Amino acid sequence: MSTAAMSRPRSATPGAAGGGNVTFFGVMRSEFIKFASLPSTLILILSTMAVMIGFAALGTWLFGSTMDSFSSPEMTAQMGDLNEITASMPVGGLTFAQLIIGSMAVMVMSSEFATGAARSTFVAVPRRQLVFWAKTLMVTVVSALVALISILVGFVVAKPIADNYSMDLEFTSAAFQRNLWFGMLYVVMVSLIGLSLGSLLRNSAGAIVVLAALFFVVSGAVAGFSTMVSWLADAMRFLPDHAATALMQAPGTEGALETWQSGLVVAGWIVIPLAVAALVLQRRDI
Amino acid sequence: MIRAEALTKVYGAKRAVDGVTFTVQPGKVTGFLGPNGAGKSTTMRMIVGLDRPTAGTVTVNGRKYAEHSAPLREVGALLEAKSVHKSRSARTHLRALAATHSIPNSRVDEVIELTGLGGVAKKKVGGFSLGMGQRLGIAVALLGDPQTLLLDEPVNGLDPEGVLWIRNLARHQASLGKTVFISSHLMSEMALTADHLIVIGRGRIIADAPIEQIIGGQNLPTSKVKTDQAESLMNALAAEHVQLTRLDAETIQVIGLESRVIAQRALDQQILVHELTPIKQSLEEAYMALTQNEVEYQSNVGSSQPVGAMESRA
User: Fold this and answer.
1) Interface probe, candidates B100, B124, B142, B145, chain A, greatest A C-beta count within 10 A
2) CA dist A83 to A78, A89, A158, A164, A264, Å?
3) How many angstroms away from the CA of B170 is the closest CA of chain A?
4) Of A70, B86, B145, B180, which residue is 20 to 30 A from B198 by alpha carbon distance?
5) How does DSSP classify residue A218?
6) Which phi-psi region, left, alpha or beta, contains residue B177 (left: φ > 0; alpha: ψ -120 to 50)?
7) Which chain B residues touch A125 with a CB distance below 8 Å?
8) For residues B76 and A92, what is the distance between their CA atoms, to the nearest angstrom?
9) pLDDT tier at B284, thresholds 50, 70, 90
């Protein structure tokens, strides 16, 4: 590249416009300007947080009052590891929130194509990988922050309710820390799968439907039939939501993959769709 | 300077652009003329790398567009009006594009003023008229003060004042020594704006010459003839260089014969003609003839060499 740069015949001289070359930092800034300028983005982020925090409060209250109504310790014991359940309360809304934040991530890419803005974007930055990875980084940062804030606020809201029912919800407990950090990873994974789908399908509705199908329909159906078909129970562990949930739960649960295996599955669900989307974006016409 | 070599784009079975080779020179306005679907937009999209050529290459100032380190300062492109997210304001759209090249916001405000968008810059683009959308597209194209301007049908949807503005802008940029490449399907518009024409039809270059040559080469005599014996008259007039079009039961359009000859032939055949109107062929029609009959024209152009840019047009 450097020798070519020296021999370039006639290049843009610094004219009236000022400015410099395309840089990854510049593309990042551009992506954040675009991202922040859309009301739909903010609405989806706020909805994600509202659902997460609301479910944290509601879940803790429902669980607490249910436990309270149990008369004997035997019934309580049947519920399983109470500490684990309590610690998962602040991430209780994940099942629903995932689709909202996932939709946001889908639209980061699909809205470019739906509106024709992609033409402007990729004429300004014809090296498409720069745009793709800037968007990827942005979605990662935004979704991680949204998840972190939601879970932390969820914890703060759930804590007094838990205390009220004498449930043990501790910030420093290993169980809550697992839910916090792997819950974040879960959200980032869903968002990046959404981004990849948005990039591959270039259509918001289509990509959101596929995302919902993957996380609700496929996941639910496989879980539902897994009691009857034994190989489905094996396959289920490799679904993205099951693998990420396994990381959030206590290690050594029966039938679950090892922690590192689940981690690998989650990594695969992040990396492979991104790689395919990046490759297709490079090759396909805008 | 834009250089296309054997540039080809195939969509399924359709050869949208079929091995075109041309050079767009700096310092003049080059019109890219052709009917809808001739391959103009596809060619322009390939120049800026939105479409990948099936074969051939196209370079801007010696290298592929994507290989420039500051593409926006190299080429300003207006491809389709409203290549913008509808919920975004014009200014935010420009700011986002400027950010990629670290172009300061002062330049954003400059192009907003330059394109007359000052009053609506903070409004959502979704509410823009087609003309306003075009102006925003021009603002984007000018953002990096590029060496090369690529405008795809820029006068679409513009009012007469806007059309004039584009024309002056193009001529001004060319006078600064920049490369200006404008596509249009309107010969009349190109006649007023361009110094040089590249005519494309069905994906092939059918003419590449100074504009005067192209207009001159197509000035064939045209007449409208009314007769009750339309078919007999058509047989009488038929010849290799004559183009006959049946307009209705008794009306024929004849291109390529003087009206005196038509009258003589009708007399020879004892055909009663009750109307014979010579029509002065417009530029538009010259262009229609050109794009309808690409092979014939090609030989025409080959025999006469382009003689450089004209000085007198301004």
Assistant:
1) B100
2) 13, 10, 14, 15, 26
3) 17
4) B145
5) I
6) left
7) 71, 100
8) 50
9) low
Q: How many CB atoms lie within 10 A of CB A82?
A: 14
- Angle formed at CA A129 by CA A128 and CA A134, multiple of 5 degrees: 105
Q: Which two tokens stand for residue B10?
A: 């195939």
Please list the residues that pair with B179 across neighbouring strands: B148
* pLDDT tens string B102-155: 999 999 999 999 999 999 999 999 999 888 899 999 999 999 999 999 999 998
Give the per-residue pLDDT at B36.
81
Averaged pLDDT of chain A: 88
B207's torsion region: left (phi>0), alpha (psi -120 to 50) or beta? Answer: beta
- ipTM value for the complex: 0.86
**Closest by CA position to A36, among listed B227, B250, B88, B191:** B88
Rounded distance, CA B77 to CA B146, Å? 9
Read off the pLDDT of residues A53-80 as tens digits, 9 standing for 90 and up. Answer: 999 999 999 998 888 887 666 766 666 7
Q: Does B145 touch chain A (CB under 8 A)?
A: yes
CA angle B80/B83/B89 to nearest 5° reads 135
DSSP string, A99-129: HHHHHHHHHHHHHHHHHSHHHHHHHH---HH
**3-state SS assignment for residue A272:** helix
A189-217 pLDDT, tens digit per residue, is 999 999 999 999 999 999 999 999 999 88
Which of B127, B70, B128, B287 is closest to B197 using CA atoms?
B287
User: Which carries the bigger pLDDT value, residue B307 or residue A86?
Assistant: A86
Candidate from A18, A116, A286 with C-beta closest to B82? A116
CA nearest to B137, candidates B105, B160, B168, B115: B115
Q: Which of B45, B84, B147 sits opposite A115 (nearest CB)?
A: B84
Q: Do B101 and A117 touch (CB under 8 A)?
A: no
Residues of chain B positioned with their CB less than 8 A from the CB of A202: none
β-strands B243-248, B14-24 pairing: unpaired
DSSP code of residue A70: -
pLDDT band at B296 (very low <50, low <70, confident <90, very high): very low
Backbone φ and ψ of A70, nearest 5°: -70, 130
Burial B229-259 (b: 16+ CB within 10 A, else e): bbeebbebbeeeeebbeeeeeeebbbbbbeb
A38/B88 CB distance under 8 A: yes
B308 — pLDDT class (breaks 50, 70, 90): very low
Domain boundaries, given as residue ranges, for chain A: 31-283
- Position A127 confidence tier, pLDDT thresholds 50, 70, 90: very high
Residue A34: both structure tokens together: 């675009």
Q: Residues with Cβ < 8 Å from B311, sequence gap 6 or more? A: none
**DSSP-assigned letters across all residues of A190-217:** HHHHHHHHHHHH--HHHHHHHHHIIIII
Cβ atoms of residues B288 and B245 within 8 Å: no
Q: What is the distance between the alpha carbons of residues B66 and B47, in angstroms, rounded to a whole number?
A: 9
Tokens of B199: 């005519």
The overall longest dimension of chain A from CA atoms, in Å, is: 86
